[in-house]
Amino acid sequence: MEYVPRERVRTLTAVLSVVSLAVVFAAAGGRIPQSTVPAAPQWVLDLIPHVNVAISAAAIGTITVGWRAIRRGNVDRHRLAMLASFSLFVAFLVLYLYRLVATGGPQPFPGPDAVYQFVYLPLLAIHIFLAVVCIPFLYYVLLLAFSHPIDELRRTAHARFGRIAASLWLISFALGIVVYVLLHVVY
């Protein structure tokens, strides 16, 4: 069953990617006023990073399950795991962006300057870069999956781009956990 017209996959990928990244960069750049999101108690805002690290760990698990499932030929389990992964990614992003807008910007690094410059910033930059690069791959793979029957999907770029998306996703989520540990555990 087709959910997305095949000839629109690339166009929809581009549009969704541009809109998604515009929202992320607007939030990160302070272009979205705090008044656009409902106020939350401080304990809720403080809880979001802890929830997001749990979401990241769960996403690593679901991506891994999905990858293993497709390698074993279990398409149904793969589909379920990848949809769960995407849902976790959306939940992470919504919570992250909400906190970013509600608090007026990113959390400052509380550790020493040397760790900030030579460890934290490079890890954060790679994490953010991979997350940004991953967005169009994720949309493309998802839209291909929704626009082709399973027996035809093997003749598309779904598997090739899926491997790239999953790899970028796994590394980005793992680095996000390292960033969390530096921000909330070590310092």
UniProtKB/TrEMBL annotation:
InterPro entries in UniProt: Cyt_c_oxidase_su3_a-hlx (IPR013833), DUF420 (IPR007352)
Pfam families on file: DUF420
Organism name: Halobiforma nitratireducens JCM 10879
A single MF term (Gene Ontology): cytochrome-c oxidase activity
GO process terms (BP): respiratory electron transport chain
Identification of the protein by name: DUF420 domain-containing protein
Presence of the UniProt keyword 4Fe-4S in the record: no
Keywords: Membrane, Transmembrane, Transmembrane helix
Residue stretches spanning the membrane: 50-68, 80-98, 118-143, 164-183
Keyword NAD: no
